[in-house]
Amino acid sequence: MLIKKSKITQLSSDIRKIIDGQTIDIRENREGAWCTLKNDIHTLAVLKSEQANSFQHERDLLSDTLADISHQLKTPLTSMTLMADLLENAPSDKQSEFVSNIKTELLHMEWLVSALLKMAKLDAGAIKFSITEVKTNQLVSLALEPLKILLEVKNQSVEISNETELSCDKRWTVEALTNIIKNASEYSPANSVIRIEAGMNPICKWISVTDSGEGISHNEIGNLFKRYSGTRSEQGYGIGLPLSLAIMQSQNGDIEVDSGVRNCGATFTLKFFK
Question: What are the helix (H) ranges across the chain?
Answer without folding.
Answer: 5-19, 33-87, 92-123, 136-144, 148-153, 170-186, 218-221, 240-250
